[in-house]
Amino acid sequence: MKFTKIAALSAIAVVASTASASAAPLAGLIKAPAAGNGVIQVHDRHDRCELGRNGWHRSPRHGVRIACRPPRPRGEHWGWRSEGSRQGWWDSRSRRWDR
């Protein structure tokens, strides 16, 4: 009789601790789509230069858009290049984009 009570209490304790310890779903947040988990990404204020829909810019205050370029990578062969909708630093020696 003691063994069944101990086993029942330990099973309840294990179930209660595992159920309350995880706030995330069992499948994980990596596989969840953005619309399904209620998170919507918005473009907010940012002081550093970021790539947006209309090219590289920063937004220090609401409604203010300042065109800019990201910092130049180290090395001699980097140059700013615009190719269609893509803009960024281009390495002419290794023929690759920085970002």
Q: Strand count, sense and closure of the main sheet? A: 3 strands, antiparallel
N- to C-terminal distance: 67 Å
Low-confidence stretches: none
Shape: elongated
Average pLDDT figure: 78
User: What series of H and E elements makes up the topology?
Assistant: HEEEEEE
Helical content (DSSP H or I, runs of 4+) = 10-25%
**Rg, alpha carbons:** 26 Å
Counting DSSP E segments of at least 2 residues, the number of strands comes to: 6
Alpha-beta content class: alpha+beta
User: What topology, given as strand order, has the largest sheet?
Assistant: 1-2-3
State which percent range the strand residues make up.
Answer: 25-35%
How many helices? The count is: 1
Structure write-up:
Helix content is 20%, strand content 28%. The protein has a domain at 46-97. It is elongated and about 80 Å long. The chain is built from one helix and six strands; from the N terminus they run αββββββ. With 99 residues, it is of the alpha+beta class. The strands form two sheets. It has a three-stranded antiparallel sheet with strand order 1-2-3, with no helix packed on it. The protein has one helix at 2-21, and strands at residues 46-52, 55-59, 66-67, 78-83, 86-91, 96-97.
